[in-house]
């Protein structure tokens, strides 16, 4: 079936289009809330992504994306929900966002839930530097991606969806390497973008098993960007994902 990484990239693209259409300005992904993958996407199925702005604050907004799956060739099959995703976007130029108008009680409820999620995020401690980033020892999966122009959005920085896809790929390798059996991503925890990366940067991804339970495990993945010409490196993202056997 479809790996979670490409799906995360599609979600980010869809959410970004919704954010920019609403705001009328360029936007960047600041964070993505927990995602639980309810159904896997198989070869030959159609994936539909629907995004809408749930709440708009001064210079940031929450965009929700619902992913559904259609089984092509089965006319009587109802679309199945794959997952729901909530992302926070900020206007690149700090432009004050327009007021979001609500036309139903359901939309008002989405806005209140978005306010609650924001309040929880603000209470969480800020991640400092490369805290928790593992040293390269036995059991650590390391991969490197060179940021090319096609990885970047219209503002010249790496599109968040590509970072998510690379991180999930590294995490998948770590999970399979540990178990020596097929594993699938069943959920991701809140993901925060700490800094941007640019064309020509080398993005290093380090993934390792952080906890193992009876039939599932948690994988931590850390991404950093190195300016190859200057020899400087900075953390750009951190993610924790849960994997389970696909058998």
Descriptive notes:
The protein is α+β, with helices and mostly antiparallel strands and 247 residues long. The chain folds into 2 domains: 4-123, Roll (Thiol Ester Dehydrase, Chain A), CATH 3.10.129; 141-245, Hotdog Thioesterase (Thiol Ester Dehydrase, Chain A, Roll), CATH 3.10.129.10. Helices cover 24% and strands 39% of the residues. It has helices spanning 4-23, 105-123, 160-179, and strands spanning 27-32, 35-36, 45-56, 60-71, 80-91, 141-146, 183-188, 191-193, 202-212, 216-227, 232-245. Strands 1, 2, 3, 4, 5, 6, 7, 8, 9, 10 and 11 form an 11-stranded antiparallel sheet that branches. Helix 1 (4-23) packs antiparallel against helix 3. The protein is globular and about 55 Å long. The mean pLDDT is 93.
- How many domains is the backbone divided into? 2
Let me know the average pLDDT.
93
Give the DSSP E fraction (strand runs of 2 or more residues): 35-45%
- Biggest sheet record: 11 strands, antiparallel
- Which word captures the global form? globular
How many extended strands?
11
Quaternary structure: single chain
Q: Percent of residues in helical segments?
A: 10-25%
Give the uncertain stretches in residue-range form. none
Superfamily at the CATH H level of the largest domain?
Answer: Hotdog Thioesterase
Helix and strand string, N-terminal first? HEEEEEHEHEEEEE
Q: Which structural class is indicated by helix and strand composition?
A: alpha+beta
Q: What name does the CATH topology of the largest domain carry? A: Thiol Ester Dehydrase, Chain A
- Gap between N and C termini: 12 Å
Looking at the overall shape, the CATH architecture of the largest domain is: Roll
């Amino acid at each position: 079936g479809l790996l979670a990484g490409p799906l995360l990239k599609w979600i980010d693209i869809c959410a970004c289009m919704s954010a920019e259409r609403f705001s009328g300005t360029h936007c960047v992904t600041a964070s993505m809330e927990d995602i639980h993958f309810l159904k896997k996407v198989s070869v030959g199925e159609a994936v539909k992504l629907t995004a809408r702005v749930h709440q708009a604050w001064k210079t940031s907004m929450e965009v929700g994306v619902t992913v559904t799956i259609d089984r092509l060739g089965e006319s009587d099959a109802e679309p199945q929900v794959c997952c729901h995703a909530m992302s926070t976007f900020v206007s690149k130029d700090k432009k004050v966002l327009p007021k979001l108008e609500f036309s139903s009680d359901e939309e008002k409820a989405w806005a209140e839930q978005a306010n609650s999620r924001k309040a929880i995020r603000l209470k969480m401690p800020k991640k400092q530097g490369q805290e928790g980033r593992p040293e390269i020892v036995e059991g650590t999966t390391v991969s490197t991606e060179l940021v090319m122009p096609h990885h970047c959005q219209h503002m010249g920085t790496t599109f968040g969806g590509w970072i998510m896809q690379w991180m999930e790929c590294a995490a998948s390798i770590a999970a399979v390497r540990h178990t020596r059996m097929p594993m699938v991503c069943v959920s991701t925890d809140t993901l925060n973008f700490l800094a941007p990366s640019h064309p020509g940067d080398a993005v290093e991804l380090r993934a390792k098993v952080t906890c193992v339970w009876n039939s599932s495990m948690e994988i931590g993945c850390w991404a950093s960007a190195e300016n190859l010409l200057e020899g400087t490196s900075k953390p750009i993202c951190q993610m924790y994902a849960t994997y389970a056997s696909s058998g």
